[in-house]
Specification:
- The complex is a heterodimer.
- Chain A is an all-alpha fold.
- Chain A contains ten helices and no strands.
- In chain A, 40% of the residues are buried.
- Chain B has one domain: MetI-like (MetI-like fold, Orthogonal Bundle), CATH 1.10.3720.10.
- Chain B has nine helices and no strands.
- In chain B, helix 2 crosses helix 4 and helix 5 runs antiparallel to helix 6.
- The chains are: A mainly alpha, B mainly alpha.
- At the A-B interface, helix 3, helix 4 and helix 9 of A face helix 3, helix 6, helix 8 and helix 9 of B.
């Protein structure tokens, strides 16, 4: 069996690959911002909201965590389209992925909030902090700080899982490579190149998160250790 | 709602269950080998395993599926059927994650247990089989059941590259002809939920039961 590998044929499409990488990174960025926002809000509701709201958030979290991303994406994106609403495809992808990652973030942040010592809350009250100030400075920030490692690995997984959204037509790195496959018939080489690129992306995103962590949590920077 | 479509979804569900079962079986076997190799006293073996885990956890499953689907043909083997290719890729994926989970469980068995077993003059294998594994098994059950949910969910993308027909694929085909995404993807989602949710609940219950000493 002689098979001639032809990587140059695939690498000739580097502008296309770069475009895909750029889309993947943009997708990851937006979903990280919205995901953490939704996760933080839902986690606050789940730990201290009214009973019905807690129940709703619980339902959302359980339902998302026990169904595949692919089905969620089909449901949301094809569903929205079937109602006659026209969305840019990237916006649809951001919605689907955010809904998905929001549920995971909620669970992680909730664990962080539950690990906050009650004494901290009492101290905040004694200092006369308002409810809002307490939430921001005493609950959410330390909670995020504590679960930051778990959070960042979840978001690296999300970046990898964004490849699934190629199936609804998003031209991120995986989706755009379909074009290279049908142009060159070099399927295996394309997958090898994709593998290398995703490994690099995973390293880059992980590094980005640790830098962000250093910037966001100065206490951690000073201690030099995870809390 | 058309009953032939529901039957088709149920067939898809069967495909999902078969693929998940095979993955769990083979992934479990390889994952166990990976976990043992990861804590091997030989640095070369443990380092090589660490690299393997790092690589496989940095690849999207779709890319892994493409490599497993197109790879064997290129290296002179018969090409794989969709089920074989999907099982192959999911096995590699599961072995990396299960290997890492179980390594943690093996290492969380208290250090004196390892030392005591050594003092008793047990061989490495005896130590593992009679002292460490029975204790590690208890610790490992909740995260393993939790990971089964991941496997079941991840079988949903087996149709995308290798074309294995399972629940998501059948749902997609039905939607292409009916254009009722909310209905049929909703039913498919409920079917996944019906399998995954009991496992998630079970995993949490086991964890609570196990944690009784720390309460």
């Amino acid at each position: 069996m002689t098979y001639e590998f032809d990587f140059p044929a695939v690498m000739a499409y580097w502008p296309l690959l770069l475009e895909g990488i750029w889309t993947t990174l943009r997708l990851t960025f937006f979903c990280t911002v919205f995901g953490i926002l939704i996760g933080a809000i839902c986690a606050i509701i789940r730990t201290g909201g009214p009973a019905w709201a807690r129940w709703m958030v619980g339902l959302y979290v359980e339902f998302i965590r026990n169904t595949p991303l692919l089905i969620q994406a089909y449901f949301l994106i094809f569903g929205i389209a079937s109602m006659g609403v026209r969305l840019p495809i990237l916006a649809g992808a951001v919605i689907a992925l955010t809904v998905n990652i929001g549920a995971y973030t909620t669970e992680i942040v909730r664990a962080g909030i539950e690990s906050i010592n009650r004494g901290q809350l009492e101290a905040a009250e004694c200092l006369g902090l308002s409810r809002f100030q307490t939430y921001i400075h005493v609950i959410i920030r330390p909670a995020l700080e504590r679960v930051y490692p778990a959070l960042s690995s979840q978001y690296v997984l999300m970046m990898l899982a964004s490849s699934i959204l190629s199936s609804v037509g998003v031209e991120e790195l995986f989706g755009i490579s379909n074009r290279i496959q049908s142009d060159t018939y070099r399927n295996f080489e394309v997958f090898v190149v994709l593998g290398v690129l995703y490994l690099i992306l995973a390293i880059v995103v992980r590094a980005g998160f640790s830098l962000l962590g250093l910037a966001l949590f100065p206490r951690r920077r000073k201690l030099g250790t995870p809390l | 709602m058309n009953w032939t479509f529901i039957v088709s979804l149920l067939w898809g569900l069967w495909g999902t269950v078969v693929l998940s079962g095979l993955t769990f079986l083979f992934g479990g076997i390889f994952g166990f080998i990976i976990a043992i190799a990861r804590i091997s006293p030989v640095p070369l073996i443990s380092k090589a395993t660490a690299v393997y885990i790092e690589f496989m956890q940095g690849l999207p499953l779709l890319v892994l599926m493409g490599l497993c689907f197109y790879g064997p043909g290129i290296f002179g083997y018969d090409s794989l059927t969709p089920l074989q290719a999907a099982t192959f890729a999911l096995t590699i994926y599961a072995s990396a994650y299960l290997g890492e989970i179980w390594r943690g469980c093996l290492q969380s068995v208290a250090k004196p247990q390892w030392e005591a077993a050594e003092c008793l003059g047990l061989t490495r294998w005896q130590r593992m089989r009679t002292i460490i594994l029975p204790q590690a098994l208890r610790i490992a059950t909740p995260p393993t059941v939790g990971f089964m949910v991941q496997i079941i969910k991840n079988t949903s993308i087996a149709s995308l590259v290798v074309g294995y027909a399972e629940l998501s694929y059948n749902a997609k085909v039905i939607n292409n002809s009916t254009f009722q995404p909310f209905l049929y993807f909703g039913i498919a989602a409920l079917m996944y939920f019906a399998i995954c949710y009991p496992l998630s609940v079970q995993s949490r219950a086991l964890e609570r039961k196990l944690n009784v000493a720390n309460r």
